[in-house]
Design a protein that fits this description.
The chain contains 11 helices and no strands. It has about 260 residues and is an all-alpha fold. The longest helix has 29 residues. The protein is globular, with a radius of gyration of 19 Å.
Length: about 260
């Protein structure tokens, strides 16, 4: 069977499985945990379905695994013992009798579709054998490291801030959050641009730019920053923070 079609089918069954888990758990935010691990699954599935695995395949799969497992575990710990994420709770009320059908297609299948687009650079790398590392690859690794650092440190700073009861009702404005209102989102987008740079030396690698473009669009225009900032508008301190701090790309705060 075709390499890309087989991978798509694996992803379809994976997302369908997590939809069934969400019915048992009675919470749709489990899709956020499944997100990172979906990339790990497809990376290693395609790795083991090709005849030869080069050094670059091993490298990119390790990068994806480190990112995906870390993100899934972070979200699991963040949601553990708490009510369902406010976004999914709102949809649960809004969708009414169509909740289960819309959840399956608009949360799990649609998320799977976007996941597939984003992971395309990894699929191209795994499909092609290469034991050499060039200058563009080194740049890609450095970009990935920059993005991963922003995501991990941003998440850690926010988790530490929220854990302190004295900060209840306040907005984090120190550390990386002093330079961008969403360092973790900036990091996630950046690291996928790094993965794309690793795919550029392969046939059709340039076309997989659809991957980083998709994650950039989703986070900056759809389900990431817009939804989070809409919720943050309720905080009276947000306007001042918004006026002095870059929304996405880290910049010195405005005076």
């Amino acid at each position: 069977m075709n390499y890309f079609l087989t991978t798509a089918l694996v992803l379809f069954f994976y997302m369908s499985f997590w939809f069934m888990v969400s019915l048992i758990k009675k919470r749709n935010d489990i899709a956020d945990v499944a997100w990172g691990m979906g990339f790990v699954l497809l990376a290693w599935f395609t790795f083991f379905t090709v005849e030869q695995n080069g050094l670059k395949s091993i490298l990119v799969n390790l990068l994806v695994t480190i990112w995906g497992v870390r993100l899934a575990w972070h979200i699991h710990l963040r949601n553990k013992g708490k009510a369902e994420d406010y976004r999914y709770l709102a949809w649960r009320k809004e969708w009414g009798k169509w909740f289960y059908i819309r959840s399956y297609f608009q949360v799990y299948i649609l998320q799977g579709f976007f996941l597939y687009l984003i992971v395309l650079p990894v699929l191209i790398i795994n499909k092609n054998y290469s034991d050499s590392i060039n200058v563009l690859d080194i740049l890609g690794i450095l970009v990935w490291l920059l993005g991963f650092t922003f995501e991990v440190v941003g998440d850690w700073q926010l988790a530490k801030f929220i854990k302190n009861q004295e900060n209840k009702g306040k907005i984090l404005q120190t550390g990386l959050w002093k330079y961008t209102r969403h360092p973790n989102y900036f990091g996630e987008v950046t690291l996928w641009w790094g993965v794309w740079l690793l795919a550029l030396s392969f046939p059709y690698g340039a076309l997989t730019i659809i991957g980083p473009l998709t994650i950039t669009f989703l986070i900056t225009k759809v389900s990431g920053i817009p939804m989070l900032e809409k919720n943050m508008q309720r905080n009276p301190d947000f306007i001042a923070y918004k006026n002095k701090t870059s929304i996405f790309i880290p910049m010195p705060p405005k005076k």
